[in-house]
Amino acid sequence: MANKHVNAIVVGAGAGGGVVAKELSEAGLTVVLFERGRWQDYEDHDHDELISQRITALGNAFGPDNERYRRVAQRGDKWVTVPPNEWAYNNNAACMGGGTLSYGAMAWRFMPQDFRMKSTYGELAGSTLADWPLTYEDLEPYYEKAEWEIGVSGDDSQNPFAPPRRKPQPMPPFPFNTEGRVLKAAALRLGYHPFPLPMLRNSVSYGGRPKCRRCRHCVGFACAVNAKCGTQNTVIPQALATGNCEVRTQSVVAEILFDDRGRATGVAYFDAQDQGQIQTADLVVVAGSATESARLLLNSKHRLFPQGAGNNHDWVGRNLQGHAYTGAYGLFPEVMYDDIGAGATVGLCDFNHGNEGLKGGGMLANEFIRLPYLFTDRRPPGSARWGLAHKDFQRRQFKHLTSVKGPVQEMPVFDARVEIDPVVKDHWGIPVARLSGSRHEHDVEIGHFLADKAEQLLKEAGATQTWKAPPGMGLSGGQHQAGTCRMGDDPATSVTNRYGQLHEIDNLFVADGSLHVTNGGFNPVLTIMALGYWVSDYIKKEWQSSRLRS
After folding, report:
1. Considering only CA atoms, which of 399, 421, 427, 410 is closest in space to residue 339?
2. Cα(first)–Cα(last) distance of the chain, in Å?
3. Most CB atoms closer than 10 Å: which of 193, 194, 329, 355?
């Protein structure tokens, strides 16, 4: 039996797609939300750190499996096939809620300058640095909506660098742990401006869910008490409650289908039994991540766009960005580990902008709790990596190590990209993504600057041994991937308009980090959620005027 025609298809149930499904279904549109993973929760993997580390390079148990998924990555002059548990895969989650099920949940708004990087800093050789086609002021109401509907704890009034806002975050911030208190005092002595981190975690009961109990198992795990705020426990249940939204899990979308005019008519997909299916719709919203959304568009061809949907100017898949993480580690004579999760509590925005000779910068914060298995790679340069000395360091220093790190705002590079591999296919016979390119050298320069600042802070806090961890030149685009379907006003240099609508296909939209022109010096998830509301608002207005209906 053929699937019933619907108004909208949303591909991907993560930060952007979950929001879009909720907004459109509440507006009365019939929606099918596709997710290649399934519903998962704490009971599926509880606090098994070893399972989490074996399944994906991200350190969580909710990524795609190694048997059915592959990508191709560039290593030197060779192309190699890599599974999800290798770093070169640049992993994405595969579950309801996407990465929001197991993320660290930092909830940052980008700064106004982050939307105007070219205007602020000018040209940069070797980079496609550009301004966004929208401003912080445009997106501010949608940041607010994300904070209040999904749930954010924090207090921007304590951060003098925070962008202007109309309403405070809906929940108070988490108190500092031991690391936070020590680092805050040191930062104040250095003349910096420390503040509690904004988090998509319940500091008090909110949205019908309990407050966080601050266990050590947060990053990489589902929340045992459902206090971490993701789309799987907020907006997607609201979408389902309307009766207008159907979720199809374990369903892999292979391509977008088009009519003779080049308008989207639906998708071809494989269901949970690996059977090929067709779902038709009036419009399609792609929200599968910067890697998978680009892959889907490139695999969706038509005589009017033979190189893939939206790709007549060769910009789909280009400008792949993530975040070059940088910072420093410090060993303290006193115990710094107090077993109060998620660990990260204190942040600094003193170095996001205004750094002499640099274009941008990044946020710094103390890191999330590193569990024993992950701690095995936290070692000073020259340390033993195995044997008795390695084990002795593990026993003695686990509770004495503190790290301060942050994401560098990367400079977009045209040749950092996602393509379709001409040979390798996945379990369903769909051509896989091929990743190539590297960061801009300026990212490394900024990374060294921030690592110096992080080390200085640790020394001021009392660390007796420190070492830095600056980034290298390797291709970015892991858990904070962005940029491959950038929005813009000029169809010759962007994939979508300012509303995520493909320039070439008026009923096909993108609503994830792919849209980011630049990726900020922050974890980008709140911006992705805000863009989900922004894109949805435009679709709803256009729907009312019947422009998008078949």
Report:
1. 399
2. 22
3. 194
Domain identity same for 196 and 308: no
Contact residues for 366 (Cβ-Cβ < 8 A; gap 6+)? 179, 180, 183, 343, 344, 345, 346, 402, 403, 404
Question: Is 225 a domain residue?
Answer: no
**Are 39 and 119 in the same domain?**
yes
pLDDT for the residue numbered 244: 98
Q: Which residues of 370-382 are buried (b: 16+ CB within 10 A; e: fewer)?
A: bbeebebebbeee
Other residues' Cβ atoms within 10 Å of the Cβ of residue 175: 12
Is residue 61 a contact partner of residue 46, using CB atoms and an 8 Å limit? no
Do residues 188 and 194 lie in contact, with contact meaning Cβ atoms separated by under 8 Å? yes
Q: Which of 288, 318, 510 is nearest to 412 (CA)?
A: 318
* Cα 424 from Cα 267, distance rounded (Å): 22
Say which DSSP state 534 is in. Answer: H
For residue 342, cis peptide bond before it (omega within 30 degrees of 0): yes
Nearest C-alpha neighbor of 294 from the set 281, 303, 307: 307
Alpha-helical segments (H) within 398-473: 441-461
**Distance in angstroms (rounded) separating the CA atoms of residues 547 and 263:** 12
Domain that holds residue 384: 159-220+325-408+440-473
Q: Which residues pair with 171 in a beta bridge?
A: 153
Whether residue 414 contacts residue 128, with contact meaning beta carbons closer than 8 Å, is answered with yes
**Rounded-to-integer distance, Cα 481 and Cα 286, Å:** 15
How far, rounded to the nearest angstrom, does the alpha carbon of residue 480 sit from its chain's CA centroid? 4
Q: Is residue 181 part of a domain?
A: yes
Q: What is the pTM of this model?
A: 0.97
Q: Per-residue pLDDT tens for 178-211?
A: 999 999 999 999 999 999 999 999 999 999 999 9
Residues 316, 331 within the same domain:
no
- DSSP for 494-530? -SB-TTSBBSS-TTEEE-SGGG-SS-TTS--HHHHHH
Measured between alpha carbons, how far is 215 from 193 in angstroms, rounded to an integer? Answer: 27
Using DSSP, state whether 32 is helix, strand or coil.
strand
Which CATH number covers residue 340? 3.30.410
Over residues 234-270, the pLDDT tens digits come to: 999 999 999 999 999 999 999 999 999 999 999 999 9
Strand partners, 449: none
pLDDT-above-90 percentage for the chain? 88
Residue type, 530: A
CA 395 – CA 373 distance, rounded (Å): 12
Decide if 438 contacts 475 (C-beta within 8 A). yes
From 381, 380, 346, 376, select the one nearest 363 (Cα to Cα): 346
Nearest to 322 by CA among 300, 359, 288, 291: 291
Which amino acid is present at 475? L
